[in-house]
Known about the structure:
The complex is a heterodimer of chains A (114) and B (115).
Chain A: E1 4-7, E2 10-13, E3 18-25, E4 31-37, E5 44-50, E6 53-57, E7 64-70, E8 73-79, E9 87-94, E10 104-105, E11 109-113
Parallel strand pairs in A: 2-11
Antiparallel strand pairs in A: 1-3, 3-8, 4-5, 4-9, 5-6, 7-8, 9-10, 9-11
Chain B: E1 3-5, E2 10-14, E3 19-21, E4 24-26, E5 32-39, E6 46-52, E7 60-61, E8 64-69, E9 74-79, E10 88-96, E11 104-105, E12 109-114
Parallel strand pairs in B: 2-12
Antiparallel strand pairs in B: 1-4, 3-9, 5-6, 5-10, 7-8, 8-9, 10-11, 10-12
Amino acid sequence: xxxxxxxxxxxxxxxxxxxxxxxxxxxxxxxxxxxxxxxxxxxxxxxxxxxxxxxxxxxxxxxxxxxxxxxxxxxxxxxxxxxxxxxxxxxxxxxxxxxxxxxxxxxxxxxxxx
Amino acid sequence: xxxxxxxxxxxxxxxxxxxxxxxxxxxxxxxxxxxxxxxxxxxxxxxxxxxxxxxxxxxxxxxxxxxxxxxxxxxxxxxxxxxxxxxxxxxxxxxxxxxxxxxxxxxxxxxxxxx
Lengths: 114, 115
């Protein structure tokens, strides 16, 4: 039990498909994050939610659409992606407002866009 | 903007030996947090150790310790008595002490522990 659960673990989709990534945390945290991890690049922050409100959108293309219905769940809706969007997508949570609170990560979804 | 640099893309160490991973960062802030995360093949990022910039004493967690040089903006990780299970990607990260600002990560160092 990692505390942060991501599904699916792997996803292969065509450029015209619509799919969603799901993240759930059982840690009582109130901040949730989406990161993109590509080979040989630093982790890229995509979105941040605090108490269900989006507080950061790091210039992410509109083909990525986040949704945070409550503090425990976070989705990333995908549509008309490009091959360069293939990457590992990591979800994380933390105790918002606590500067010392570390991020707790899920196992990620490995996305391949064909 | 803050940046984090890990200059060693890959490293290897013999089991039971000691290895040091380097990290430098650039910031104009005086108060901040620094972290080392480990990402094993399971892909889950796990916090290894963290350091508050206002503390002069280097953080230690069992076999893991840091050498924090604030003036030099350096934050290296030392792993003592390396174990096979230490094989992983290691990421250095920086966080400002202002609001709920997200972590800024380096590109990572791939560490292989050899039996």
